[in-house]
Write a structure and sequence with these properties.
About 30% of the residues are buried. It contains 11 helices and 5 strands, in the order H-H-H-H-H-H-H-H-H-E-H-E-E-H-E-E. The chain has a 5-stranded mixed sheet with strand order 1-2-3-5-4, covered by helices on one side. A hairpin with a 2-residue loop joins strand 4 and strand 5. Helices cover about 60% and strands about 10% of the residues. The protein is rod-shaped. Helix 2 runs parallel beside helix 4. The longest helix is centred in the middle third of the chain and has 80 residues. The chain has 2 domains: about 240 residues, no CATH class; about 110 residues, 2-Layer Sandwich (Heat Shock Protein 90), CATH 3.30.565.10. With about 400 residues, it is α+β, with helices and mostly antiparallel strands. Pfam families: HATPase_c, HisKA_3. It catalyses: ATP + protein L-histidine = ADP + protein N-phospho-L-histidine. It is an enzyme of class 2 (transferase). Keywords: ATP-binding, Kinase, Membrane, Nucleotide-binding, Phosphoprotein, Transferase, Transmembrane, Transmembrane helix, Two-component regulatory system. One of its GO terms (cellular component) is membrane.
Amino acid sequence: MGAQPETAVEMPPRGVLGLRPPPPVVIDIFLAFLIIAMTYAPVPGDHYVRPTTLTLVFAGVTIVLLPLRRHFPRTALALAVACFTIVALTGVMSSGLIMAVAIMVFGYVNHSTRRRGILVAVGIVVFVIVLSIPLAIIDGFSPRVVQFALTIAVAVAAGDATRSRRQFIEAITERARRAEETREAEARRRVSEERLRIARDLHDVVAHQIAVISLNAGVATSSVDAAPELAKTSLATIREASRSVLSEIGDLMAMLRSDDDGSATASTAPQHDLGQLDQLITQFTGSGLDITLRCEGDLTRVGSAASTVAYRVIQEALTNAHKHGADHRAHLLVVVEESELRIIVTNPFDAADPDPALPTLPTPNGAGLGLIGVRERVASVRGQVEAGPAPGGWRVAARIPLSKEPLT
């Protein structure tokens, strides 16, 4: 088997610039260095003050919490805010700790809903401002409070954008997966339909002729000594049927080996229809089936699709009558009404004394493959067909709309 084409489902995740994102441990190490750098960074406008031991301890705690934010973002955020609060209560507004809080806010918003993430972020900003009030009363208002609020706002925006991008990728991946499944289901459906079409064509073009050959071979065998002329007639019918089936098998093989999907070949191939009903009756009559035909209405009103289906219905019904019926007789009624074509084929049938040479008999539920094909063909033009025992024999009745196009 050749290599399968890559689908959108199998593509690895990519970053904003089309690059694969670094491993989580690399990101955590970078963020840890960022928290440490912000902790030791001097405050603009003030003389440099080394961070206190308490600040360094809680900065270390927030670094330890970094991996936790991926699986427990709410807990990591709460602990980071607690660390910042404890240090702030000692009179120190640490930039490193507010950076840690911003990182946790990013993780929380990234894994939460937009509404909840914004509400939590606003609450944290308000909380930071409230914590800065005692320091503002003592030392005056510090612009760093605004800087802290903006840092958290940027973290919220970045987390919301990351979550939106992830959800967008998940949505298009899901659509790609469904599209792939739909294409596979459509391919399986087309293969199944093609197999059914081939099976119907094979049955129509081969089974009928093979039945004619089999019946005439039996007639020729039984009459070769007693009625040589009848045997010759049967052998001539066998020869003609053999030529016909070979020609039709050749056409079917050519269609199967063609490069197109078969529709073009099928559309250009000659189709049997009710215009060839007389030849069909003559063929059955020549093989020994006595047919009483009655046509009512104008057959020219029947469209090509309905006419082709009607021909196959009659062919299958007469074939079954010839193979399984009694007395080698059949009655065919074709009625063209205002909006539909009715076909009724009846034949004597002795169910109590079936021919033991027959492999199978048609059953009332239509278990025969031929009747299954007839039902499929009639259904393709929105028609109905019934087959089953009737008083005095077997009856096949089909109703085919005149103005409907085939479903497929």
